[in-house]
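Board notes (copied after class):
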Amino acid sequence: MDNVNQAYKQCEEVIKVHSKSFYKAFSLLPPLKKKAVWAVYTFCRTVDDIVDEGTNPQEELQLFEEKFYYFLKGSNPDDHFLWIALRDTFQRYEMDSIPFQEMIEGQRMDLTKKRYQDLGEVLNYSYHVASTVGLMLLPILAPSKAKQLRHSAISLGIAMQLTNILRDIGEDLERDRIYLPSETMERFQYTEEDLKNCEISDKFISVWESLAFEAEAYYEEAMDDLDLYPLHSRRPVKAAALFYKAILNTVRANHYAVFNHRNYVTSEEKQLIMAKM
């Protein structure tokens, strides 16, 4: 049991370093549930890091997928703390393996697809890399309501991923990735060259706000079913949603500086958001 607790502790360190918003929000959960969230987050983070930072991401992702296959068959593929913590989580909760596999599929998209033609393509990508996280967490957060909350979890994931896209435009550009739909850019006559020149013009703001409008609509959709979550999960989910949604207003307050500036919600702002919940 000591090695399981140690594995969860290592997963906690991963989320503490990489996502202060999620860590703060889900720290509100009861002890066993928040540890399970740390394990799921570490799975997602590991896949993401392979794609963004791996030396041979295609092969590394294939190897990780094979390890997950063996994990699902009942054997730990190695003694990495992720598999130890995740095994305990799978034993405690009725976890669905499909969103985990869809997440890997979504991350694989980043290895081959660098441009998105329309909003539909962006939403499909967002489902795979973000809505899947919500679906992974439902058996932990709301085991008796997982089916009823499926649509809400998908909407929240899409809202958060659209927010990521709008925050990370500059970072993504450095990796030659553009998630802003080319159709939307064409509609507002904002070119890829303009984007590469980091031009923040009325045209850029129109493109940005068009996607922000979609994100905010998905946040509203996700919040419609908030009362279906058990009380112990409701506040963490709402906090996570509001922390992320606040990033959009931070970008606006910073005059849409997304190319060479990291927009984030401060600890003080998060405290204020939680005080108003």
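Comment from the instructor: The longest helix spans residues 31-53. The chain is about 75% helix and 0% strand.
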